[in-house]
Amino acid sequence: MGVDVRLIREAVTAVAPEMEETRHHLHCHPELSGEEFETARLVAGRLRALGLDDLREGVGGCGVLATLHGGRGPGRCIGIRADMDALPIEEASDLPYRSCKPGVMHACGHDGHTSTLLGAASALVRLREEFAGSIRFLFQPAEETIGGALQMCDDGALDGVDAIVALHGWPGLEVGAIAVRPGPIMASADTFDITIRGTGAHAAQPHNSVDPVVVAAHVVLALQNLASREVSPTDAVVVTVSRIHAGTAYNIIPGHCDLKGTVRCLSRTLRETMPVSMERIIAGICAAFRASYTFIYHVGTPVTVNDPEFNSL
Length: 313
Fold this sequence. Notes:
This protein is α+β, with helices and mostly antiparallel strands. It contains 7 helices and 13 strands. Helix 1 packs antiparallel against helix 3 and helix 5 packs antiparallel against helix 7 (268-288). The two termini are 15 Å apart.
């Protein structure tokens, strides 16, 4: 935009106290995905008070958007997006603004994201005569359940938007620091379900069984070879089996074992190969131990790849 940094600092400093108060309020009153009714109402009220154009509520569910037109004439429309939903987690802190809703908490920082974007809107209104083009502010519901972004897009939230930016709070950074880089920045997030079927038996007679727990143990270890022996060291992949469930008693070998986990990649090409590679390993091990299996791979969110134009310092 070419706005003087000094003016930006002054505008941000002016709105910071209100945004801190807003963040504390949102943290105290979290709402789950798809239920962000009060949060959306607060956001819409703030945007309306700022006098923004094209205010829309109920976009893709509980989504809210509005547009600010710069005072220096037409130009590109840049979107800025924040998410609003909380998680089904009990807050254990003793903060004065701790969650007042049992079992619901802003554990992922979306209260901060929403407050930050409201602060950006307020600051940019003060600077509107300093830039051309327009800025669309998008407040997204249901990020934690993945579907909110697509629902907003289907409802026309990005119509006329030339580019969009967003941020994610990161506790490991110093306060006031911003980490930016072009290219892949956040991994894809896929999940999988594996069921290994064997033959149950008494634990004292393992020779009469095809033990699915033993087979599962081999599968878990073998899947780690994908990262260490089948993927280039310059690429990145994580295959994590995070849940194993089998059996009901100490002395009974069960008939099946269930595994669940996640796959994270920073390469779109690598991501496409993972289901095939995983099933090859699972099928081979199950065949060796005389077990059968089912394998379901759930495609989730894609790799986040930052555009070089907007992410080069």
